[in-house]
Records
---
Amino acid sequence: MAFRSITRSCGVWTSGWRTSHITIPSRLPNRALFLDRLQTECDRPRGGPTFAVLFIDLDGFKAVNDTFGHSAGDELLVTVARRLRSCVGERDLVARLGGDEFAVLQCGISVTAEARDLAASILDAFGEPNGRPGDSLGIEASIGIAVASDAFEDAGRMLRSADDAMYRAKASGCQSAFKFGSDSLLMKFESRLALVS
């Protein structure tokens, strides 16, 4: 009897944890879990391999929902999640931040070029056929990249830098583009916010 109660309690706890940390329908970790893991990386002593954040925004996702319905949008999110997982290493984390925004925490990199190569692989994966003859994923993406440095003491700051770089990639007018974040640009932006408030 006691064993059965504990099992039920653990099942409820596991279900509750999953509900609060995993997004539907992508079955990826959510923003809170991503930020928690990213903060753990930010707190590690520097030296040796480092890490990067890739902030991915799907271009044209709203049009898919509006034209083909939310079930098609959900199917696309599942496909995007699967393609992202296929691009990353075992230690990396893929998360859905919300809506059409995803993030990758790339761990154990030794040079910035590894983050660039991952971004290029992701963009290539999004362009691959979708399993049906002549059918492609049909969506472009903009990616912002922030590589760990002493300027990033907290996860939120690093994610904002990658987000800012993503918006610059989107503003470049190129389809499927990526840009690197800049510590100096982010500091200028935060200084302006401080002056306004």
Note: The chain has seven helices and five strands.
---
Amino acid sequence: MVFIYCWFCLGDLPQRKSANWKLASLKWRRNSRTKEHRTSCCPRSAGGSTCRRSKCSQNWPPSAWNSRGWRNKDLKAKNQELEGQARLKTMKRIEALESKISALQDQLDMSAKDQAVMAKTNRKLERKCKEGMQQVEEERRHADQYKEQRSVDEAEEENTRLATAKRRIQRELDDVTEANEELTREVQSLRNRLRGRGGGGPSGRSGYTTPPEPRRKTTRGDRSGDAGEGDASLDADAEV
């Protein structure tokens, strides 16, 4: 406030200086004329009571002196009036600037409040955004777990299906192996009968037949070999 007042006072300083300068110039002229009258045109050595110059202030009538005094009073009044006007303008400008400053301060306070509200809203939005991101991440993790669980279930189902198919094939293989063994025994018995009939030995005369070989346990590798032997024996019987 002091700075603004000084600034406006300095702004009106030229007007004050001009008024003071006019008043000072008038005083200086009057003093210079009086001094000139005392030194040059009215020497005391001459002993004259009046000045020889027609325009000397000593020769002025009282009315002239009165008019000059009134002029000085008018100038002083005008100077005071100008100072009052300048002071009034300065006060008005100060009041206008104070009102502007108050308005700007109110606007600054409102902007600060708006900024605080916006910051609070921004924090809420950031919190909601974080919660949304966490929820999306949780849903994505659940989806991945569901996919993995589904893949595991599908793999277990496939394993179960393959195990069932394996058991079915194993049963079929066991059935085929048993059938092959039965056929092998029959072929062996037929071969023994044919040998007994065609040999003409004691066994053929007495009607005694060679007993079949005892059944033995076979493995998977032996089963394939037995199947081959059975096929060979069948071929031999066919030739006979």
Note: Residues 1-8, 40-49, 200-209, 236-240 have pLDDT under 50 and may be disordered.
